[in-house]
Every structure is written in structure tokens, then in C-alpha cells.
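Data follows
____________
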Amino acid sequence: MKKLLRAGLLCLLAMLSGCDNEPPSRQTVLAGKTMGTTWRVSLVDIDEARAKTLTQNIQARLDADDRLLSTWKPDSALMRFNRSTSLAPWPVSPALADIVTVSLRVGAETRGAMDITVGPLVNLWGFGPDKQPLHVPDPQQINAAKARTGLQHLRVINEAQQQYLQKDLPDLFVDLSTVGEGYAADHLARLLEQEGISRYLVSVGGALVSRGLNGKDRAWRVAIQKPTDRENAVQAVVDINGHGISTSGSYRNYYELDGKRISHVIDPQTGRPIDHKLVSVTVISPTALEADAWDTGLMVLGPQRAREVVEQQKLAVYMIVREGDKFVSWMSPQFAAFLLDEQN
């Protein structure tokens, strides 16, 4: 799956300002690569032998998720559906049906801004399996790609203990890159629960899930990065407290074309990369999958329309907006409940 460079979430696996007299951490950090990005799992009181076994099990689980969701692997379950021109119900796994169901719901609640059928536009602008274009696509190319998109052309069917996807456009292309990291983070959390582990911090790319306390018997702390190239620039710190968190940003994954800065975030309504002043959206939700879906849709909407949706849906959201040479932050009351004092 294509790597989406987000507005970074820094996993602070120890306290930001620890004291010398604190006991040493009992944490173990496992890590690897998946979906074109990286994964990290922080655990407490795990011996070396079990850590090795867990690493193997985690990588196997993530490899299976990639075979399910990837648009870069022609034999993935999703790409088999995409390649088919059949308009009949297409049998899929419960997992794939659930991911699409959540995506369609959030898509509707963001007024179509979170659109998993936007793949033709993503590819047209060079952020999918196709190569980067030599020139900015012309209106005819954009309109042709838009004609192959739209959430109304896709539905999920649950029938007789079997799930199906069905499209009414033969060349509809579903791209789940925007939610894949969130789903994978939730999936790893479920794996750890099955292993009897109840204290962990999981991250896949920009999506995280936590449970319990860290190795110093304190809350897991997650820092939202400032919109800068400095990896250690912290904007705010939260305790996600058993929830999922995900960040989408427009200021890192881009390229220059014909003298213009091209963001990887595509507006399904215009068919073009976003050009508003919202540079980062962080969402805390019951699951990382939901957070991953919401942050994309809100990022597309821009600061004013996103705030309207956040207030209507009562979401836990932190936004960073560029105003001239400065960055201004805004958070919903629901997000403020998760906020921590960096000094404590």
C-alpha cells in the first residue's frame, strides 16, 4: 500500500521530562515495515523469547492485511475487485466489508469529502500506482477521472452470512490507502488482546491505539507534531486512553509540478489537490479506523467546513491552520478532554 506521509504522530514511549530517580522502564519496543510505512509496538514486561514470537506474529498479521487492502499488489483482495468489470455482488471477507462500511459512513458524514472511490484522481495526480505526471492534468483529464468516482456507485451487501461489494460502474476503483493504517493498528491491538496483553501502544504509520499504562506505570503519551520538518517539534500531548488516534497533513507528502506545489490530499468535488490553509487534522475516535477515515475527510473540507462537521458530530479533533507565516491551532471540547500537560 502506498505510503502516506502524514503530519506525524510522535510515539513518546517514555515520559517527555522524566526524573532521574524514576525506576527504569520495563518497556520493549518491536518494530518493522508494512504498507510502505513502519509499525511499532511498545509492550510492558515481555521477555526476549516472547518478543521474538510476537514480532513474527505481528508481521504475519500485517502482511495479511496488505494482501487484503493493497492497491500496489495486483493480487490483493481489493485489486481483484477493482479489476473486475462485473456489476454483480462480489463476495469479500467480513474485514473488507467492515472497512468499506465505515468508509462509506464517514464519507456521507463528511459530505463526500472522504471518498474511497477517488482512486482514479489519486492516480492521475501521481500519488497512486501510476507515475507522477509530467504536467498538471488538464480539465478534460480531471473530468474523465471524476466520472469514474463517487460513493453512490459502491455499496456493501450483507446476506446469508456472506458479505459482498457491488459497484454500478464497471471501472470503479476503490482505494483504501486512507484507512488502511487505522485498520491495521486496530487489527494489531486485537492480536495483542488475543495474546493476553493488556498494556501496549501500537502504531502503524500515522495511526495509533493504546491500552493500559506504560513501563513507568503512567499513561501512554502521544505527541502531535508541529507542521515543521523537525521531528521533535511537539504541538500538543495527549493520553488517548484506549482510543485510536490518527493525523492527516498536507505539508509533507507533495511534489512540485509546473511551478505548483501538489498535495497528496485530493478533493473529490474539484478533482484537484487541496489548496486551503488547513495543514493538519488529528482525530481521536473509539477505533483507529474511524480516526483514520475522519482525519482524511476533515482535511479535504478545509478549516471552516471541517469545524462545522466536527461540532455537529461532536468529534475529538485538533486542527492546525496556516495564517500567513504563523500556525494557529484549534481543538474541540471533546479533544481537550484527552490533553495532557507536557510537564506532568
